[in-house]
Amino acid sequence: MEKIIVCVKAVPDLRSVKVDPETHTLRRDSADLLLNPHDAPAIELAMRLKERLGVEVVVLTMGPPNASSVLRRVYSLGADRLILLSDRAFAGSDTLATSKVLAKALEKLSPFSLVLMGLKSIDGETAQVPPETAVLLGIPSVTNVRNISVENGVFILERVTDYGIEELEVAPPLVVSVTTKLDYIRPPSLKRLLKEREVEVTIWNAETLRLSQEEVGLRGSPTQVASVFEKTISSKGEIWEGPPEELSERLIELLRQKGFLKS
Amino acid sequence: MLEYPLTNEERTIKDLIKEIGEKYILPKALEWDEKEIYDPLPIRALADADLFGIIVPEEYGGLGLGVRAMCIAVEWLSYYCAGVSTTYAASFLGAYPIILFGNEEQKRIYLPDIARGKKLCAFALTEPQAGSDAFAIKTQAIKNGDYYILNGVKQWITNGGIADIYVVIAMTDPTKGARGATAFIVEKGDPGFVVGKKEKKLGLRASVTTDLIFNECRIPKERVIAREGMGFMVALRTLDYARCGAGAQALGIGQFALEVSLRHARKRIQFGQPVYNFQAVSHTFAEMAMRLESARALVYQVASYIDSGAKDFSGASAMAKCYATDQAMWVCERAIQMMGGYGYMRDYPVQKLFRDAKCLQIYEGTNEIQKNVIARELAKFVKI
Amino acid sequence: MSEIIYAYGEFFDRKLHPGSLEILTPLRDIASALNKKVALLILSSSLEEVKNCEDIERADCDEVHLVVHESLHHVRDDLYGRVLAQIIRQKNPFGVFFPATHQGSSLAPRVAGELQVGLCAHVNGFTLKEGNLYMLRPTYGDNIIAELYSKSRPIMATLSLGAFSIREGKRAPRVVMIDLPKDFNWESKIRVRRAIKVKREPNRLSIAKVVVAGGLGLKTKENFQKLFELASLLEGEVGATRPVCHAGWVDEGRMIGVSGVSVRPKLYIGFGISGSIQHTVGIENSEFIVAVNIDKEAPLVKIANVALIADAGKVLDTLIKKLSRSSQSEL
Predict the structure, then answer these.
(1) Which residues of chain A lie closer than 8 angstroms to C289, CB-CB?
(2) Which residues of C touch A234 (CB under 8 A)?
(3) Residues of chain B in Cβ contact (below 8 Å) with chain A
(4) Do B265 and B302 fall into the same domain?
């Protein structure tokens, strides 16, 4: 089996995120970054495969320079090699442009047997990048997978759909997105945490990946933000104040009038 | 209240334990206690986090850290659940004899798996008629060629059944008394070795305690730790090291009890104000804090003393264990009182802490025995 | 001939996914305004399956475009993506839209990637300006709506589930069979070993008449659990905000909003919910909204018909006490 690559995303900490008033995109540079929580199951499945197959696990992220802290976190979870795809030109990429960057990096890392990603990111929540990256690489993708095993060099995947469970057989290479929940996700390793700061993060930019400025970032993104507006809220209702007891009684009376209660 | 300067390793351990505690322990701890179940999941998490490797030397796959690092791990694990920390700390109790007295071969065979948490350990000394009077053990090991044949029963053994490696103290020559015992490594599945029923306990209910039964159990002579006749030496030295861990458990339990009850007292309104405003309440908290901090200072100091290479630390570690566990018991009892009815209800954690804390005054040598040790050691300091 | 707007028809077990019917509603309006027609695009392994399907006959669209081939028995994303891309190349539609189901969200990016066109997600509204189509989606973190457009054709997006209500068509749509080129490659690199049907309880939240929802303002998981008591007293369902689900207080299936389900009950009561747009887009279609919050300035307080300014947990407690007392006295 060739190496496994996990693509993760550094997401802004919800409490610190700001929207750029000019470009209308999230200002990731100002925010604290966290590992996208939905990526944790993908990392866990990668580690279980690593234990069984003894393959190298490479972790990849596209993001600003400070996203390397998130990669180091994945190192503590068991990753062998960390690669950060970072370039000002990547900023503002939509899912297609993002998938192009990832696909180029994956090509550069090939051969690989499996690319794992979280089902979706907690910020964009589009779930589009895994299948879109796969199609750009010309390889199959399977989404929402909860278990992976290997038989005779072929991956056996358990996929959860809206209608049930599918057991699929796919020869490498392929892209898999993993369910947002697993029975168990390992914590970081103390040994690796103590070495985290010394670990090298390889940085690849647009030039390394032979991507032109037109193909990526805001310019390379076919979907564009025309405007953003705040949802205007006009107070239309009544405001009741007072002790909880009294408010509850008034509410019950109102619900009764409105026919939500039987008597 | 006090901040202790921690090394990089110690800080990392503390943060890691907190992460594990919040995620794998806290949401379930009350349920484990209520239903008296051992859940292997937090143990798996601790193993994956390398936390079983803290005291194992680096050359055998561990981190080679000292007693203080172990205490910090046990303290914060106990903050989340002393039942889980009992499983964890009891495994160290079983690992210490191999680390301290095992030969190269034994270390090579057992320590890497112990460090990775793939194998849990247990330590078996106590017997039905030999508790505080450890020299009264009856389990026999009779040499027969390349084997020893073990017969007897060990009682109240933490991790019985879930451990893979058991360090068992048995009499090889009853006529020699204190010099007649030997320490053996017994593995799960050894012929003639069975695990008895799981005990029902007042506290530490997320941990497993059982009898171990040896019936013509054949153990190869390579499994003797140190030499024949050194069994009690191995056992007592192991307890000297591990006793700080029991003290550390007390710190975690006491800390949690203090925090929970303090939060309650500051929020609970009676007579139109938070009960914390009443001096009878706030002074109790002041006393709880002082006792807890003094216990912590002692446990940390004794652990550092052991790590510094001190040879004579039986008395010191007995003090740390006895003092800290007595304070935790007191703090937990007061925490219930400060919470009134809420403290007594099983929906709230303080009653669990109280029951857990009680065991600490009993196991790994009762606090009465600790005082014997302290008194014995103390006598050496004054020549008469 | 007028241009087509495609809606992906997710078809399984002789039924259309309601999401596919929902998205026809706004697409129909867009088609009318731009003089285009709406077609439901369905892939199936047998004509038998699709024939006489009530869902399809009632669909509010002009045409149903059918591709039937035995290889389409299971939804294998690589093959389905290629088939859809091929049809789009043949028909050159104005837009292609998917319901944001698991299947829709998996197939849409394969199609968009193959055609190298843009793809928006979580669209829950459209605007037309000078003949241009803009898509609306709530953004992350703030109470902000983004208005998006696509530089590429066809315009593609996945549309939020529950964001639109199903409208019945006036007459049954015309069925058009679509043939793919003779040399089309029907192979997939994915082999289905087995597919186990799991009969899932339909998410009753989206059709509940009464929804009681809780947010972090309830402070503890235990308080949140009490919502289930209230829900049973009011014969309703329990909903939750996103942070509450992420905190592990309740299963993600209860999440209301952008990443969860949209609800349209007669009565919605939000306890300790400040009302970030993530959540409020999912409750906009509620008939009567009650907010219980300590913070008078919370957005949900402003959109509510009635807002109770008080500690959510305490109000929840007293409501349960009073309601269970009155229901007992009835017995």
Answers:
(1) 237
(2) 302
(3) 8-9, 12-13, 16, 19-20, 23-24, 41, 44-45, 48-51, 53-54, 63
(4) yes
pLDDT, tens only, B33-86: 999 999 999 999 999 999 999 999 999 999 999 999 999 999 999 999 999 999
Active-site residue, from B9, B364, B368, B377: B364
* Contact (CB<8Å) C146/A228: yes
Interface touch A193/B12, C-beta < 8 Å: yes
Number of H helices and number of E strands within chain B? 12, 10
ipTM of this predicted structure = 0.90
Note whether A147 and A48 are within 8 A (CB).
Answer: no
Contacts of A188 in chain B (CB under 8 A): 16, 19, 49
B254 with B334, same domain? yes
Place of tokens 């190269």: B104
Q: How far apart are CA B269 and CA B264, in angstroms?
A: 9
Domain that holds residue B210: 122-229
- Decide: helix, strand or coil at residue B252: helix
Tally C-beta pairs within 8 A across A and B: 40
Domains and CATH numbers, chain A: 3-204 (3.40.50.620)
**Using CA atoms, how far apart are residues C175 and C53, in angstroms rounded to an integer?**
12
Cα torsion through A249, A252, A257, A260, rounded to 10: 180
Give the list of residues 6+ apart from residue B296 with CB closer than 8 angstroms, or none.
B2, B4, B251, B324
Is A187 an interface residue toward B (CB < 8 Å)? yes
**Quick check: is B209 in a domain?**
yes
Angle of the B314-339 helix axis to the B231-267 helix axis, nearest 10: 30
- Quick one: B207 and B274 in the same domain? no
Q: Give pTM, 2 decimals.
A: 0.86
Q: Which of B1-5, B72-76, C51-55, C212-216 has the highest mean pLDDT?
A: B72-76
Nearest C-alpha in B relative to A196: B12
Does the distance separating the beta carbons of A190 and B50 come in below 8 Å?
Answer: yes
Assess whether B73 and B25 both reside in one domain. Answer: yes
**Amino acid B17: pLDDT:** 98
